[in-house]
Fold this sequence. Notes:
Layout: H1 3-39, H2 46-58, E1 83-86, E2 91-93, E3 101-107, H3 114-129, E4 136-142, H4 150-157, E5 165-168, H5 171-180, E6 185-188, E7 197-201, E8 204-207, E9 213-217, H6 223-234, E10 252-254, E11 269-271
Bound molecules: nickel (II) ion.
Amino acid sequence: MDAAGHSAYVRRIMLHAVRFIALGVILVLGIAWGAAWVGRQEGEGVGEAFSRQAAWLLGQEAVAPSAGGVQLPQGMALGGPFSLTDHTGRAVTEADFAGRYLLVYFGFTYCPDVCPTELGIIASAMDELGDEADRVTPVLITIDPERDSAEALADYVGRFHPRMVGLTGTPAQIAAAARAYRVFYAKVNRPEMTDYLMDHSSFIYLVGPDGRVRALFRPQTAPEAIAQAVRGQLRGGRVSEGGGFRRGGAIVIIAGEAAPAGDGAGRGESRS
Ligand code: NI
């Protein structure tokens, strides 16, 4: 074999190898995608099942679920330390709430409909709890610190519940708190609007006395279901069927009512 023939031979071998590897990758991805499709949980998309299973295979934490009715992976912790300012202008951290149960919502006061609805649901759940609500603090953490000053929050939270606490902070403090709860938020500018809106995930979090999230509630969960889950936690027991509870340390999302289709509410997102 001369030099030219030899290099052509090598090139052909390499081409075969590349094709073989590409085919292998496609095959593996196809099988993984198929497994995700078969193994997906109720209400979960194939993409979500895929990333969840991939995360499980790699021993990593999966991304926060955006669909309802999904059990978070084992060992996935939500919540934790934060450093913010309350609606009276006082600097607070998670230590100020230690020993208390919190119903936390991330939203903003300019929100036209989704946030007020969810905060109204929290208020109704508090009413539903009766005396047991004394151990629970409803909390709104703004994801729009630019506009939501302590004063703006003070005006707003009182409309929902007399004990609701509004929390704001610097953009960096808010970003850190949102990261701990895996809350998504982004500014949305629409040409026809003078003011911007915020796109944001819309879960209600039940936080335990240790500052860790015990349960998440999808948008439009019935206040009774939330109250039931809170009551289960307060009494140190498990929540009966229909409610959510910690199963082996994992957080269970309590499915809400059938969310209206198409507006992203069922995915725990709102553009509002
Ligand atoms: Ni909103």
